[in-house]
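The authors assume throughout that readers already know how a fold can be written as discrete tokens. The format is easy to grasp once an entry is in front of the reader. For illustration, here is how one protein appears when written out as sequence plus structure tokens:
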Amino acid sequence: MGSHSQSAGLTAATAKMRAAGVDEVAVQTFAHYHRLLEHGETGMIPESSIEPLDMESLSEVEVDEEAARDAIRATVSIKLNGGLGTSMGMDRAKSLLCVRRGLSFLDIICRQVLHLRTKYDAPLPLVFMNSFRTSGDTMAAIARYDELPVEGLPLEFLQNKEPKLLADSLMPVAWPKDPDLEWCPPGHGDLYTALRGSGLLAQLIAAGYRYAFVSNSDNLGAVPDPKVAGWFAGSGAPFAIEAVRRTASDRKGGHFARRKSDGRIVLRESAQTLDSDKSALADLDRHRYTSTNNLWFDLHAMEQTLDSREGILGLPLIRNVKTVDPADPASPQVVQIETAMGAAIEVFEGARTIEVGRDRFVPVKTTDDLLVLRSDIYDLGPDFVLDQSASAVPFVDLDGTFYKLVDDFDRRFPEGAPSMRRATQVRINGDWTFERGVTLVGDVELDASSAQRVPAGAVLGEDPGGDDA
């Protein structure tokens, strides 16, 4: 279908984007995916088309210290910071959440970078990809770090937005009672579109940078590490992703595989997996690695590839079906066109993956994760890097009725998180408020049908024989 015979849905959607001042590169990228949807593209990756992927491990790689230093001096760190933490009841940047000692995700990210700059005498610019909703709060929160800006480079660029489409007609949805809900972010695959459209990609190259390290702001394990930078620079690869071994908690999540047709590495998300392939997706022995969403790419390779494709990287489509008002299941069904930034791995010939330790993947998606991060499972050293002090991270399952939303969660841990260094499993059912200095050991399960308190200094789950768990 040539552009001369554009469908009504595409015409209306692109007109709406231009009227809202969306960047033209983003409009053209959206149009590319809208046409795929019209042609019935679902973005599915059948199990029969892929095979398992094996890879090298960072712990076994030798990286020369000088090479690591050179690589980190040529690196820019980009943090995806468009998320609002809506699933935890927040309406502002999730990265403003307090992690510990009054420090937020943003504070720790900034301090990690400032520490590395001093240690390696590296410029190491830090740039946030914000959304329209997170920009103001984020910029205000990092303003106290006077030394953070690198001359000639911005501290942020904005991700794009696109219209939600009615599932049946692919026309842009109208929702007059809250017009904000007519829009959605295009998934983090928009990173490349926004980098190019904002002019930042060209700016970084002109300033002499060679590598980008990209990660999520809710993953404090994602430090721009010189050893990984040195490995990537030495590999000569245009693009790489850090992977971790999948665990039971990753069963439903995406994984890496190799495409049979051309040997390229692909990243298959659960939304791209057929129902009949869900058991293969959950098989941790077959598909052993998941993405940390910590990626490295060569700025020159990215620029050349985008130029040769007229700004459209051509990432695989993710067709996400939701309701226009996520809080109202009766509101109209819409399609959100999304792409995943990690999926760019299939675009680049010679792209690589490397297995890293779980310490580089500590995402906070729920208050269960937040409790672990606020407890003593991790120490925060002078380099502001999380250092796991427990032998293993315990499994945590908090009752959603009382702990899912951050405000409710905070109210029930008024004196901070309990000590969980010696815990293996923590399951809390019902409404429990924890007083100061509680220690959890081994398997702890609490059940209550009415509001209860755990008294100060209590030790729960310890073997009565005094045996250390």
